[in-house]
User: What shape does this take?
Amino acid sequence: MNDLAPHTVRPATLADEDALAELDRATWSTLHSVQDAPKPPYPPFFDERHPPRDILVAETHPEPADGPGGPRVAGYIRLVAPTPLPCNQHVRQIQGLAVAEWARGRGVARVLLRGALAEARRQGASRVTLRVLGHNTPARALYASEGFAVEGVLPGEFHLAGRYVDDVLMGRSLTAG
Assistant: This one.
């Protein structure tokens, strides 16, 4: 894996709408999505339930040898409060992570995940959870390597591409180690 330094993570802005919508459509797969494949007319990426404030964007910065050019959107992660309940505000949940095909294998997902953990701490959270499909081995390995543990499994929760797939709940503390 390449060094993580060429990637920066920043909050999304409304100006990211087109790039993030395109990335979301380009990366759709039953490996990680339980939604139907996107079809036109496409809904907006940002909406009332998915505002820019809940999204962190990873940008890659080209090496000088690559020639001129500014940063490129390489991926995003969505970090939200899982419920509006006051008793649950110490938890943040990752509800989406996508990395552009051209940026895979370069540490972008790891940088985004670490950025989300830092943002969750900044927001005062003491715990982060997520759901991942059981057959998404690369994502599960990434999450485990960053301290997430399997906390529950819903066997055969989804029927995707002709087979039943487990829904795996993972979580980690932000206060320990």
